[in-house]
Amino acid sequence: MSSIPQVLHRTAKPVSVAEFVDAVQAICRPRFPGARGRQERPVGATNPSLSDPFGLAISGGVDSMALAYLCSRVPRQRLGIKVADNPVSAYHCMVVNHRMREGSDVEAEAVRTSLANLGLKARVMSIGWKDFLEDSGYSHPKELPNFETIARRLRFRKMAAICSKVKMASLFFAHHEDDQYETVLMRLISGHGAAGLLGMRSATDIPESYDIHGAYQSGMIDDQAAKAPMINYRPMRYELSSIKDEMMADLDPEVVARERVEGTPSSAYLEDEFDAYLPKTKMMLPVAPPKIEDGGVMVYRPLLEFSKDRLIATCEANGVPWFEDATNQDATLTMRNAVRHLSKNHTLPTALQKPAILGMCRRLRRQAELDESEVDRLLGRTMVRDFESTSGTVIVQLPSFRIPRIRRGLNNEARRARRLEHYRYIAALLLKRLISTVTPEQQGPFATNLQNQVLRLFPSLNDNPSTYPEHPKAFNVSSVHFLPLWDGRYWVRMCNRSNVHAAFCPFEARHAKAFRDSLPDGQSRDKLVALLRHYAPGKVRYTLPAIYTGGDHERAVREAGRPRDTEKTGHLEEAVAKRRWRELDILAQRQEYHKIRAWEREVGIWDGNNGDTKDERRVLVALPTLGVARPGLSNWIRYDISSVLLVFLLSRADVVPLRPWEAESPIISAAGLPEKGSSSSSSSSPTMAAVDLGWYAPSQTVVNNLTNVVSDSTSGVYGFIYDSSHTPDEAYGTYNWCNMPHVRASEYKVPPDEYELVYVELIHRHHKRTPYAANSFPVESYTWDCDDEGLYFFARPFSDPSSPDPNAGRNASALAYWDGFSGFNPFGAIATGFKGSCQFPQITSQGLDDSWQHGADLYGAYHDLLGFLPGRDGDTWRQKVKYRVTNNVITSEVAGMVINGMWGTTASVPLLVQPTGVDSLEPSYTCASSASQFSAITSSANAAWAAHFDATAGLYATLDGISGVSPADPGFHKSFDHYYDNLSSRQCHGKPLPCKLVNVTGLDGGATTAACVTQAMADEVYRLGHWEYSHTYRGGGPDALAASASSLGVWAAELAAHLRDAAGGTGDGTLWFHNVAHDGSVSRLLGILQADVMVWPGMGSEVVFELWARGGGYFVRVLFGGRVLTSSNPSLGTLDMIPVETLLAYFDGLAGVKADLIVDKCKASS
């Protein structure tokens, strides 16, 4: 007889008080384990918001009411429960009323009544919108485009202020398991990496309250000064009594009695005869270091392990009422609502269902915990030599990484690469932890943004040592300055009394023989060989520091002892030279200066940055770490060298932390099928190859889709980078506005062997700079002063050999000067007496370094990898390369850094330039038709352009209210160009987004700030900027192509002539033509080439034209961002080894041979 099977109906089980207490104690660990006190503290339980139109938080919702019920029952069942460090005295509920919906006040009172019935104290707080909306241009909070962000910030700050006032150190939130699932799923959809998929933390500092004392990581000093501190480190009474008893037990009663009779010495620690030796003068006491703050409010989420069904069951089983907000059911309102609707009403793939997502979250969290444990072990091996809170410095000795050997087997290289990647990540976490001790920022850098710094500090983790910079530079991370040393290993100090310049450079093999032969005897030479063999075997020796002199050292020593009459004659000659110099005019002085600098390079007199000159002039005179030097050197050149520790120096720059970014595939390299053009092919001469000169629309992407650009559900900027010049190697090619990807040897795709490179020309936008004066705000919370951290008014200056070099170890600039250049420019000839401009404050120090690195990367690709460019030795490269700039001096500054990065020279290098008003590279020549066409594309008569302004009226009003820009300002309201430029310049340099200064006096008597530009606003501005550029230069129809071709046509014709000369063998032997221009020039060129995906060319953007020879023919490859450019025009297509005749015919058809079509086109009315 078979048994009847049971039918089980699964229902949600209410959360018991015991389960809740266990969850609380699991996450509310003691923050100060050494504390002794038992002072009771209140705990706050929040009902986060009331009547929020976005449905992000519901006052009195089922989750918060379940939390309130469980908190009310804890004291009845578990007396003396501790949260963190203190027993709980009471639970206070805070209800925030946003007053955004009619009847919200009534609901708030109903919630308070329900909480009172549970025996809980409740405080109803209302958001004061009046002060916030003042001068913002909005009459109601609902009109704010970023209401959700602003409401969250005001809500948290209101609660933080209350917690600080009533000394609440713990705040409970009612987020539950379903909230965690939705959060992680949304982040997964948005493309977040592993750090973002960890989900909400169960315990964290209260957000949005960084400047509220007593709420965010502060309040401990005041607490300890109180009579009854909440965190008590003082001994208890019974402990004091016990200590007294132990001390009394150690005393000998007979000794105490005798001392009472005989008395004790006058000094408890010194005999009387030593008193005479005590100092009689007042000694300066050391400065008392500032005390270190701690404490603040912690946010706990004890319900994260419970599902919403169980919370509903808890309320139903105990008769607890709750309040629902109907807006939570609208799947079209917010992304969270949409995700909630999908998960409840659709069967998602197994990998996206709640068990899989939460399981992934737990695994990632466990891995993160293991990584942090590994960092803890490394910190245990890190020696902190000194921490000085007075100056904000910490001196540490970093541990060395011991990478275990990989046993022989398959995939050794792949396994080693994975292991190195893991250790680099651990090193980044270690560095982040150390930086957090001295950084002034609210949040430290993300580990993924520290890979470049890790390779600087831990060279052993570099999988390709050849990529490690030859001359390490100072760098700044999270406002922490890393002091530059000799390749990170030695401090060096040198005193030079000779008449030749001396400098530290790496030990080079070509100087080894001469140095060995200069030693006095065979024993000294044998000793040198033995030392090198023992301490620096193999190639390691060529990392040793060496001292070189710039000329004949022995001759200089002999001349140092010349007689007084010879010295007097030298002084007289110097006086005559100074008088003659003063008699020269400015132009003659400049010419003479160039001659002197050229002579200095020729004879081997260096600048302070160790720039290369003729190597045969350098003489190796000492290897200081080995103690080997030429005889008699110590009489004229003395040095001290020692091993060093790494020094972290706190910067005073007030900046915001870098933001994280995650990118899957770079949009700038996306390709798509071209759409049919608007006109058929044509040609301007019988011999021209048949090409299609028609306009073809770009591919439809998120960049040029206006609906996506302005949608509230769109966040970020497509994975683009806006907060750092650094792009991780694994993501190289991703759009980085601060420092665009460019040709590098590590990513360069070498063509097959049958191709031979014969000519390269590129156009290169300048690197990052300050905003222009026209782009600055009338009202800002900080200024771009000339002494801002990392900002310069000029390209990096030359060093004076007679004085200490403030720029030692930093990238140098070539002494670039302007050289008039005409070509066949039909708009005018070179002006008489054309001169260079004065220095102009634009390119920043970081931009100069990016420029230098750009040049070094180009040299690494086209010389080291391809063997195309000549070597740096000698001057042969000067006849093979040319550099051209615009009349804006910032392009000259960038060119100077690029030249030094490529050739290592600080000598004079000409920069070709055309006069303003006729320059074809800027372009600055007058072209009425082009101006008219661009105006039509960006006018209110253009439907798309008008639509994008209509969709962003609210954003404009908010930005105007913050910036102080007048709504009638034509510069800021012609497009988003000015706002884009201003905000991106700040973020690329680590500066905070701006806030509005309001005339409100705080308690401290100072002005307060409010109405800040949020990251969401900035991201929308960036998206709009890309849309505008795509529309202007590509999406505006045939007029966009015609306008670009007319305005940049002369330069395109010059490029075509260069390609034609190189292919025909009729040129002047130039291999490399480098143009440094602006975004307008690069954008017009991309418009002419009809880039299939158009973005705003970021800082350092480059378009490279490579001319290759194969089998008697010539082919062109065009690279943008280091990758092959794809055109929507079917005649061009993928610009990878297309016949040069095709590209020449295309340029000739648009501009004419030698630009003979441009003048007539520019004079045309349309």
Give a verbal description of the structure.
- With 1166 residues, the chain is an alpha+beta fold.
- It has 4 domains: 17-231 and 295-325, HUPs (Rossmann fold, 3-Layer(aba) Sandwich); 382-482, no CATH class; 490-643, no CATH class; 667-928 and 1028-1163, Rossmann fold (3-Layer(aba) Sandwich), CATH 3.40.50.1240.
- 36% of the residues lie in helices and 14% in strands.
- The chain is built from 33 helices and 29 strands.
- Strands 1, 2, 3, 4, 5, 6 and 7 form a 7-stranded mixed beta sheet that branches. Strands 19, 21, 25, 26, 27, 28 and 29 form a 7-stranded mixed beta sheet that branches. Strands 8-9-18-11-10 form a 5-stranded antiparallel beta sheet, covered by helices on one side.
- A hairpin with a 4-residue loop joins strand 8 and strand 9 (393-397).
- The longest helix is centred in the N-terminal third of the chain and has 28 residues, at 354-381.
- It is globular, with a radius of gyration of 36 Å.
- The termini are far apart.
- 38% of the residues are buried.
- The N terminus is likely disordered.
